[in-house]
Every structure is written in structure tokens, then in C-alpha cells.
User: What shape does this take?
Amino acid sequence: MKKCESCGYESDDLNPEVCPECGAALTSENEGNAEQEELVVIYTCSRMYEAEMIKANLESGGVTTYIISYDISAIPSVSDEGLIQILVNESDSEAAMEYIKTIINQEDGGEVE
Assistant: This one.
């Protein structure tokens, strides 16, 4: 079981690394009460492939990266894509945002936070 130390959210799913309620990192019961660094949203987009490419690039540079996808398919819209956020540890946020600014053209639809 994983638990969010910030809001108390608990999940039996072992795959999520980030709390869907507040965005904090989830910890396993066997990880103890280690101090967690704050996560920061550095980029939002609507295409999962774009988020995965950014994550791969950041992680190849040693930046631990998380993706949160909000499925809004129940809400009628012209697109079936949802909101996707890319998060990194606060200590890596400035470097990650600078990197994203060099590889992302703002006309592609993403927003650097």
C-alpha cells in the first residue's frame, strides 16, 4: 500500500508515484517516514506522448520526473484528451524549466508553469 504523507490519501495500486489528490509523492509502507521533497508542476500539456518525451529527456539528465494525467473524458469537449502535468522535485525545478524552454516551442500548445 502507498500513502500520501501530505493529505493521507491511500492507494492499493503500486504503480502511482504521485498522489492524485494533492500531487505529493506517495510512499510505500516499508519506506518509513523519510522526509519528502515538495513536487512542483513545471509543464502542462494535453498529449501523453509529449509528456512522455519530456519525462524521458529530463530523466536522461538525472531529473526524477512524474506525470499526472487527469482524464476529463466524461466532460463533453471537442477533444478527447485530458490535462497532463509534469512534476519534478523543487530542487530540480529551475534547471528542468530552463531545459523545457529550450526544447518546447510555445506554439505546440504546452505551458511552462
